[in-house]
Amino acid sequence: MAQITTGIRRVLSHPAVYDAFQLFTGSKWGRARFARQVAARPGDRVLDIGCGTAELLDYLPEVEYWGFDVSESYIAAASKRYGPRGNFVCKLLDSKDLESLPKFDVVIASGVLHHLDTDTAHELFRLARSALRPGGRFVSIDCCYDNHQNTVSRLIVSLDRGQNILDGDGYKKLASTAFDDVVGRVYHQVWIPYTHWIMECRAP
After folding, report:
1. What sequence ranges are listed for the domain Methyltransferase type (predicted)?
2. SS3 for 118-185, per residue?
3. Angle between the 15-24 and 27-38 helix axes, to the nearest 10 degrees?
4. Where do the domains of the chain lie?
């Protein structure tokens, strides 16, 4: 996994600090926008790969939610906060897990792709494709670089723990290894300068 976990970035491994940092950088706004793009309906099955503290649940209707993350502290925080609203699993999702899980209406990866090296990202997309029902959607959000972002936004993005931050075309290229139907859009946050890429991939 391509991310920095030393110095100030290590502090973000603590769930409370991580959530506070997300609030400071405007990620609450980004998460609400992302939830609108996810567009989950009541009763949908939702798989969240790299769910973190599962705060996206604050913006989702009553769904059958499965969240996977390798951080014990994040999963513990999610379980404590949301309890029976979701199924929280502390492990790296793999193909064997999918054998015992239902097919999903939506698979999401929120702030995950830019932490992954290319091979690991390709594997994530393959897993997402396998997990989806026919016509299901994979939706992701990540910080990104863009020709139209301002200097402050580019600086803040560059300080992220993830070390594989791409532009929109770069993320689409990763997704195209598993999906044929891939669309995305850049969003520029103004009040706290930041740039997000939201992408949607549809299974046939």
Report:
1. 47-138
2. HHHHHHHHHHHHHHEEEEEEEEEEEECECCCCCHHHHHHHHCCCECCCCEHHHHHHHHCCCCCEEEEE
3. 90
4. 8-202
Nearest alpha-carbon partner for 75 in 61, 59, 93, 97: 93
Contact by Cβ (8 Å): 37, 31: no
Instruction: Report the alpha-carbon distance of residue 82 to residue 68 in Å, rounded.
Output: 14
Distance of alpha carbon 183 from the chain centroid? 16
Distant-in-sequence contacts of 82-87, Cβ < 8 A, 24+ apart: 82/54, 82/57, 85/57, 86/54, 86/57
The CATH class, in words, for 8-202 is alpha beta
Do residues 88 and 51 touch, judged by C-beta distance below 8 A? yes
Report the 10 Å Cβ neighbour count for 125: 22
pTM: 0.85
- Each residue of 74-133: pLDDT tens digit? 999 999 999 999 999 999 999 999 999 999 999 999 999 999 999 999 999 999 999 999
Contact 166, 145 (CB under 8 A): yes
Query: Is the dihedral angle over the CA atoms 63, 197, 183, 48 positive or is it negative?
Result: negative
Residues 6+ apart with CB under 8 A from 66: 45, 46, 47, 48, 86, 87, 89, 101, 104
